Amino acid sequence: MRSLTASTAIPKATAVLQFCHTAYMSGVQAHIEVAFPQRPRQVIPISELPFFIGRGSENGNHLALDDLRVSRRSIVISAVPEGFRIADRGQAGGLFVNCDPVTTGRILHDGDQIRLGGDDECLLVFRAPVKSQQHENSFISLYSTNAASQAGDSHRELNRLSLLLEATSLLHSQLPLEAIFASMLDHAIAITRADRGMLLEPDAAGALHVKVARGRESKPLQPEAMNPSRTVIRQAVEHRVAVINEDLLQADTSVQTAESVVLQLLRSAVVIPLYHLQHGSAAANTDPAAGGELLGVVYLDSKRASAFSSLDRQILDALGAQAASILDNARLMQRERERQRLEQELSIARQIQQAMVPQGITDFPHLDITAIYRPCHEVGGDYFDLFQLPDGSTAILIADVAGKGLGAALLTTMLRGALSGLTSGSEPVKVFEHLNRFLCERPVVGRYATMFFGLLAPDGTLEYVRAGHPSPLLLRRGAVTELYHDGSFPIGLVEEASYTSTRMQMEPDDTLLLFTDGVTEAEDKKRNLFEVERLIDTLTRHAYCSLNAIQAEVLGALEQFTQGANQSDDITMLLVRYRTASPPCSQSL
Hints:
Layout: E1 2-4, H1 11-28, E2 31-34, E3 42-45, E4 51-54, E5 63-64, E6 75-80, E7 83-88, E8 95-97, E9 100-102, E10 106-107, E11 113-116, E12 123-127, H2 133-149, H3 154-168, H4 177-192, E13 196-202, E14 208-215, H5 230-239, E15 242-245, H6 253-256, H7 259-264, E16 268-275, H8 282-286, E17 294-302, H9 310-356, E18 367-374, E19 382-388, E20 394-401, H10 405-419, H11 428-440, E21 449-456, E22 461-467, E23 473-476, E24 479-482, E25 501-505, E26 511-515, H12 517-520, H13 531-541, H14 547-562, E27 571-578
Parallel strand pairs: 4-5
Antiparallel strand pairs: 1-15, 2-3, 2-12, 4-6, 6-7, 7-10, 8-9, 8-11, 11-12, 13-14, 13-17, 15-16, 16-17, 18-27, 19-20, 20-21, 21-22, 22-25, 23-24, 23-26, 26-27
Helix pairs in contact: 1-2, 1-3, 2-3, 3-4, 3-9, 4-9, 9-10, 13-14
């Protein structure tokens, strides 16, 4: 048995492989210039593909832009045969390259200007250097030197090196994972003249299973029928190095007597463990396996003793150094396709949820109304609604489901369906109590909701029921107060909870601001909260403005306070003014 590391490879084979990778990267490596006028100019290399750009690094973005105008999942740059391709991942307002809208993706060229959304200031510039002639000349020189150095059997070795370079090109392939490794194994078998090759991958418990198996002449083999030498594999994984057994009958007793070796008449085997490389770490330059996660194992065997020549071993050693990158790249592309599928489904869910939110709100006979809803993710847990009852009263509802994302959105859908029964004359208190029992009896749902429901009659009588929701703010004659200060239980939290209704009289020009805690609990970069006091102060300073102006001022105060910090919760606001003639706003926005 012989163990190999990258340092034992013949310089010729390693140099060819490293040159191939270096020459390729030098020709296509690109970078992004961040050209936002209000921030320092940055140059960010595209060091990994696909390359994600958006707001917040916690969303998996390689280039994180802390700007509320940039969506969390904004754009993606990926490698295709034609070069670099840019695609929209959900940027609000769309994606533009050189002022042209990008809907289905576009190939990038050096100097292309990328605009995120409708704001001309959200600008990026794509830069891709031209391939260096020096690298091309170096390839010709190196290739010729290697050919001349092996005059005796140059044709055979150059053919093997050609196969090696073809296999290395798979590093940047976008083929399905199994197709990539089937081709990789075919190349390895052709290079070494092995009888068969396999790729083994670990399951969640760490046990290795055959995922892809190939025989000579690109013959596919059934993975479940394969029985590789587990003893040899275990030795390679335990020592974290490639292991070559030139003659299994001369190996350790444990290997000689292994059932797979005896029954299959195996005489030689190669095992190359594949580890995730920590990019940029010192260990990755000297020991690719140091500290890395085991991604899988490439296994080759033969019924011939000494089947793997000296050149074979070193080519395989160099090839193994790239195989882990190939597997990483293939898995990344697989995850990206899965991500795109999920994003498409979330986009559909978002469209459905947005359709449930009142669209194009028009004023009711005795009310002026405006509202805004900004989910934290594609779908959210906030919900509001307005509808008129047969007696002329207007129903006003705002709710906030605990948590965010798809689970919260599903519960808001259920709440909307349940509360639609109010239009037929059901008493709000009884509806609240029914919803509370329904959720408490189904603990598997694991969610609760805060709610505020009000009935505003044409004469200004407001009857409301609350369930743990923040108190709406009442703006009356320039002063701001809260409707209530005492607490109540959210829907679905305590089975024994009871709810009561309260009445109050609205006066002409009174304004109600209903909101979810995504407004008052908005955070700046130091995790400070916006809080009710700032909301009251903003509302007081713009008390005599129109509802649209008040809403714009509150949003402006939020953006000024958060200073580009990520939105941490859904934001919903609903402004309702008991109709009367209101003086024009004299304050500028």
